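User: Predict the structure for this protein chain, please.
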Amino acid sequence: MTSDVRPQKLINKQITISCIVPVYNEQAIVSDFIHHLDEALAQLTHQFEIIVIDDGSQDQTANTVMQLCQTLKHVKLISFSRNFGKETALTAGLEHCTGEVAVLIDADFQHPINLIVTFLQKWSEGYDMVYGVRNNRANESCIKRSFARLFYHLMAKITKINIPSNAGDFRLLDRKVIDALNKIEERERYMKGLYAWVGFKSIAVPFDVQARAGGKSSWKFTRLTELAITGITSFSDVPLRMWGFIGFIISLIALIYAFYFILKTLIYGVDVPGFPSILVGIMFFGGVQLMSIGILGEYIARIFHEVKHRPKYIVEEKCGFGEDNNKPF
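Assistant: Here is the predicted structure, written as structure tokens:
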């Protein structure tokens, strides 16, 4: 699709939009959100779908969405057999969507629905990916903000891709971007990195994060740390090279010290051995070895998960797709 066709489709409401909404234990707010989203999309186009991916919720989220599928013709549900994670839920949505563009948005109202209009305007200007960037992270704890700054700074230094700071999953993707992402067969997925890796013409749109309409975020510090490790190991081999360099430096220091010890022994004779220094040396080198093995283990674990070729997710049930899951709206 050429950029001169895009504005015309937007003006005539001929564009087909897929909204992908991952949910997990959002029973209290998911119905209100989908109704708001359905009304907003109806103002923009005559053809759209809202694909809700229930990531193994423990409450009645899936049943609530299933009831909405009966009353709202544009709503579709993919329910996982268990919790596979948000990255996998987004992947499932992209694999099932049929629109010319896909809008990824959370169901907690923190992503402003009215910003979709701006996303579409930027898309009509020829951009293939339009992503939202937070104006600030004032609603987060100091530890989380510091961790995020450190992570993005580290990723910028050790990877060859440019992951924008404070950019999340709230974004619009053109069909060519969707198809490119669907070709990636990784199971351990870091979506923000994959968005940057596939490339294409992109632009940022700043927005203010709204307060959650209800419930609590499922993103605890441990899950964020695990996601950060996935991002680093998926897009950089610098940690492996770094520990190889550290090992070389330590070996060089040990060699220099060995020559020093030999010369000192030849000149001054043998000293009484110092047990504290030996103990410190053993503990230091043991710690270095264990850390290097741990980093190596992270990469091996990623390989282990990939070579098993298990499916990225298991669907327990679908609703709203009809007999042909690839049938357009």
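The chain has two domains: 5-218+312-319, 238-307.
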